[in-house]
Amino acid sequence: MFRLAHFSDIHYTLPPFSLGVRALMSKRVLGISSYYVTGRGRHFAATPTRIPALLEDADAQNVDHVLCTGDLTSIAAEPELSGCADAFGDRLRQPARYTVIPGNHDRYVTSAVKERLFERRFSEVCGGGVFPFEKRVGPVRFVVIDVCRPTGMSSAGKVGDTQLAALRHLLAKERTAHGEVTILVLHYGLLRAGGVRDSRSHGIEDDLALIALVDSEEAHVDFVMHGHIHRHYSVTTKRRRIFCAGSATDLHLRCGYNVYAIDPGARSVDVERRAWNGSAYVTDKSERFFF
Question: Which domains occur in the chain, in start order?
C-alpha cells in the first residue's frame, strides 16, 4: 500500500500594497483588482498561517509522499514565493518525500519566469526545474509536465510539441517496471467535473493532443492528478481516472486535500478527503476506485 497526500492551489496571499511598487506592475495590476474587488483577499485570508497547518496535517497522515500541483502564490511576487518557501522549510530539501510543481499563478508575469523565481526556491523538489521529468518513489512513478506560462489577460496553458514528444517517450510502456503505478502530474485539468473540456481562456490550448496521448494504447498511465480548478472532483477520460485536488485553502469553498491509499496488487485506490473546518483539517469522506 502506497499512501500519497495531494494538495493544490494554496495561494500564499499577501495584501498587494505590502509587496512593493515593482510587484504591482504589468499583469499584477489584475491581481490587485482580484484581491480587493472579486474577493480573493477574503478567499485566501491568513494563508501564511494556514499553509503551515496544512503541511503539518499532510505530514501526520503517515504518507509515503506529498504532492503539490501548483499555484503556491497569488501573483508570483517575490515576497509570496519566499514566504511560501519558508512555510515549507526543510521539506524543500527532501525530494524523495515531496514533489512541488508551479501553477499558472506562479508564472503570472514574464519577469517571474525570466528570473526563475519559482525555481530558485523549489527546484530541488521539482526535478531541478526541467520538464518533463519522472520520479520514482516505491511502487509509484510520477511523470511531471509543466503547461504553465505567462499569458497576458488569458489563463490558458500549453503543452507544446517538444514537451508532448518527450512525454510520449516517458509514458512508453517499456519504461514502466512490473507492478509500477504511473501517475501523470500537472497543474491544469484535462477535463472539468462534468467530463467536458475547460474553456479556451482557462484550460490547456492543446488539450486534445494531450488527452489523445493519455488515452493511447502506447502510453502507460494509471492516474492523472492536477489542481487549477478549486472545487475537487474525479472524472475519467475514455480510459484514465483523473483526480483534481481542488484548493486546499480557498475559504469560499469547503477546501481541503486528498490522501490516496494505492494498492498496486489489487489495482485499487482509496481516496480520503480532508477538509478545513475553520481550525484544522479533518476527515470529510472516503471513496474507492479501481484501475
Answer: 2-290 (3.60.21.10)
